[in-house]
Amino acid sequence: MSTTPGTAANPDRPCLHEEFYVFADVGRIEPDETGMPKAFMVDLTIKCEQCGEPFRFTGLQAGMSFAHPMVDVAETTLRAPIRPASADPDFGMGLPGFSITRRF
After folding, report:
1. 90-91-96 Cα angle (round to 5)
2. pLDDT tens digits along 71-102
3. Long-range Cβ pairs for the range 12-20 (8 Å, 24+)
4. Sequence ranges of the domains in the chain
5. Measured in whole angstroms, how far is the alpha carbon of residue 32 from the centre of its chain?
């Protein structure tokens, strides 16, 4: 399917989603007194390169946490804590985050 990214998909010929655009934004969370960041966070978004449709990350709670991955409200951005391979497993733990709860 040859469409310009971001254009509306043709409902009679759905996109096969064969090529992807992945954007990763890595954040360094406030350095401590030694200059070392207290934590790192990566925000990932994925779109179909052919039709521009965003992909959603399913099965995760909305919000932000330094203990486990979460998503934005639209589920189109994965927010995941990361750490250098040489860092202790508790690197970044204990920092505040937030969660969003849906009520029906």
Report:
1. 90
2. 999 999 999 999 999 998 888 888 889 898 87
3. 15/48, 15/50, 15/51, 15/53, 16/50, 17/48, 17/50, 17/51, 17/53, 18/50, 19/48, 19/49, 19/50, 20/46, 20/47, 20/48, 20/49, 20/55
4. 33-83
5. 25
pLDDT (0 to 100) of residue 2 = 42
Does pLDDT of 4 surpass 60? no
- For every residue of the chain, DSSP letters joined together read ----TTSPPPTTS-----SEEEEEEEEEEEE-TTS-EEEEEEEEEEEETTT-PBP---S--EEE-SSS-EE-TTS-SEEEEE--TTS-TTTTTT---EEE----
The structure's pTM equals 0.77
